[in-house]
Amino acid sequence: MSIALDHLVASEKYSPYRLFTAERWAEFRADTPLTLSEDEVRRLRSLNDPIDLDEVRRIYLSVSRLLYAHVEATLQLYRQRQVFFGANGSVKTPFIIGIAGSVAVGKSTTARVLKELLQRWPSSPKVDLVTTDGFLLPNDVLRRENLMERKGFPESYDVGALLRFLSAIKSGERDVKAPIYSHLTYDVLPGEYVTIDRPDILVFEGINVLQTRELPKDGKFVPFISDFFDFSIYIDAPEDLIHQWYIDRFMRLRETAFQNPESFFHRYSQLSQDAALAIAESLWANINLKNLRENILPTRPRADLVLRKGADHLIEEVALRKL
Ligand SMILES: Nc1ncnc2c1ncn2[C@@H]1O[C@H](COP(=O)(O)OP(=O)(O)O)[C@@H](O)[C@H]1O
Ligand SMILES: CC(C)(COP(=O)(O)O)[C@@H](O)C(=O)NCCC(=O)O
């Protein structure tokens, strides 16, 4: 049935995924109520992302229903395990959803829409959202290590801090701090944090969340980020479309956010259209596309759910892990 995602499933019989067209996927929403309004969706979407209420109805209600089933099953399992562990059993810890995908593919919009949908479930769970950019190394460290052209590559993150954060969250700790990144200053905000206090669900979004690395030869326990996930989603799209979205967004930012003298990219708002376009193309080709090919796309088959977009950011195909 599918063309674009075929490479995920050489033969569907032996693939870990089942593929769905968006239309078929939409049917799984069943009686899941639509709890967002058109205005709220508009408020949640990122610059250049045209998502609307129809897309939420078509795609995200079924995602919400699926996640509900996973959260409920995890809760059941937790209760059953308490029978074994007794009064001093393990604490109930947040259900963590990882969201991965390229720069400019629209992860932030998906993450925000899901957060809103999940926190409107009848049980009113507390849902928090954290992005991995806060865990990037500060620009002065990146400059010192000659990594400014590698922003977003695995070596540009403080992986230790990322793993400590997730480990604290999964241990049920209270008031766990996550650092904050500013797209305005293009840097981590020194001394600024968001505090995460035992949510029922944590949405953890970033280009690197499904990445693996070589395991220590001495057998030491050094987990992958995704070891802490209860469910993971990869936002996918053809390379040429993501490229176009990145360039369009950059050119729109040039007319908006970059006009702010505080913006790291302010100088690009002063350049001619052609010169700015050349900068955007070079950032895409030399950093983000390279990173997509080398480090992000290879993690796609690790996701539980792949949402594949086509033109206008509309999801055309869905792949759900069978096992
Ligand atoms: N230079 C920038 N200035 C202001 N906002 C930006 C800039 N680059 C990206 N953003 C915003 O940051 C968010 C995250 O972008 P990105 O990491 O590319 O992921 P995605 O597009 O998948 O959400 C988006 O809402 C985007 O609009
Ligand atoms: C900050 C990012 C690495 C995204 O980080 P993430 O939240 O996915 O961890 C990316 O938006 C970025 O700035 N890339 C560097 C090249 C560029 O300026 O587009």
From TrEMBL:
Domain of life: Bacteria
InterPro entries: P-loop_NTPase (IPR027417), PanK (IPR004566), PRK/URK (IPR006083)
Keyword set, alphabetical order: ATP-binding, Coenzyme A biosynthesis, Cytoplasm, Kinase, Nucleotide-binding, Transferase
Keyword ATP-binding: yes
Catalytic activity field: (R)-pantothenate + ATP = (R)-4'-phosphopantothenate + ADP + H(+)
The Phosphoribulokinase/uridine kinase domain, residue ranges: 96-254
The protein's Enzyme Commission number: 2.7.1.33
Binding-site residues, ATP: G101, S102, V103, A104, V105, G106, K107, S108
Stored CDD domains: PanK
A Pfam match: PRK
Pathway given in the UniProt record: Cofactor biosynthesis; coenzyme A biosynthesis; CoA from (R)-pantothenate: step 1/5
Any one GO molecular-function label of the UniProt entry: pantothenate kinase activity
Compartments reported by the entry: Cytoplasm
Entries under Gene3D superfamilies matching the protein: P-loop containing nucleotide triphosphate hydrolases
HAMAP family for the chain: Pantothen_kinase_1
UniProt cross-references to PANTHER family, sorted A to Z: URIDINE KINASE
NCBIfam families registered for this protein in UniProt: panK_bact
Family: Belongs to the prokaryotic pantothenate kinase family.
Annotated protein name in UniProt: Pantothenate kinase
Species of provenance: Aquamicrobium zhengzhouense
